[in-house]
Each structure stands twice: as structure tokens, then as C-alpha cells.
Give the backbone structure.
Amino acid sequence: MSFAGKTTVPVEKSRAGIETLVSKYGATRFSSGWQEGSAAINFVANGCLVRFILPLPTKDDESVTERASKKRRTRGPVKAESSKLQRAIEEETRRRWRCLLLAIQAKLVVVETGIEKFEQAFLANIVTAKNITVYEQVQLANSGIKLLTAATAGDEP
């Protein structure tokens, strides 16, 4: 079972929970918004603008189709399939928001504990002067950075 797979917590409550959490850790200028296919959370913390993009589920997502196929049948084949699919999308949306809350909370605890500095924990989500995240910048740059794989890890000092 995936994390928060059976959550009934409304999206609005999870979003508010994220705002409360980051505010508790000193963040300011919190905002959120939606556009087709994704939601975004923005806040300023430790002198950085931080952005999380949450992909929203669609009827074609495996997690949604799997959920919908497990739902009990209701009357009328077309209406039943449509309503099962819509419920599955709503459930998966709630689950993803709970996961985002957990991810941000984990990063903040790691920083608070001193395991990582803020910039280390949130690096991928820090917004650059180009108004894109560091992760998006690295993707665009295609800088030829070669990642160390498990097979080659023994070759490095």
C-alpha cells in the first residue's frame, strides 16, 4: 500500500498544513496555485524562493486506473465507470498532497537536525533568477554531468 493511500484529508487541509509547517520553520511569502496538470507551492525560506511542483493525476495514470478498477460496481456501465474514475482521481490527488506535506516536513527536519544545510536539502526546488528551479535548470542545461553508477562506484577513490 502506498503512503496515505486511504487518506480522506481534503486537499485544502494538506495545503494549509504545508503553509503552517513552513511558517513554523520561518518561511514567508507562501503561495500556491494550480494549472492544468499540476499544482505549485512557493515560499521564501533561508533567503531562497522555493517551489514544489505537484503533478496532478489524470484518468490515464496507472495509480488512478488501478484504483478505479478496484472500486465496487455501481449501476449503469458508463456512469459507473465515469464515477469510479472520478473518485479514483480525487483519492489520488488527496494522497499526493499528503505525500508532498511529508516530503517537505522530512526536509525541514533534516535541516533542523543539522544533517544537511537548507540549500542541500532543498537544492532541486530553489528557484533561480530565470524563475525556474535548479532541477529544471540542470535539465535544460544538459550539461553532460555524468552520474556515478553502482557499477562504476568502485572505480572512484
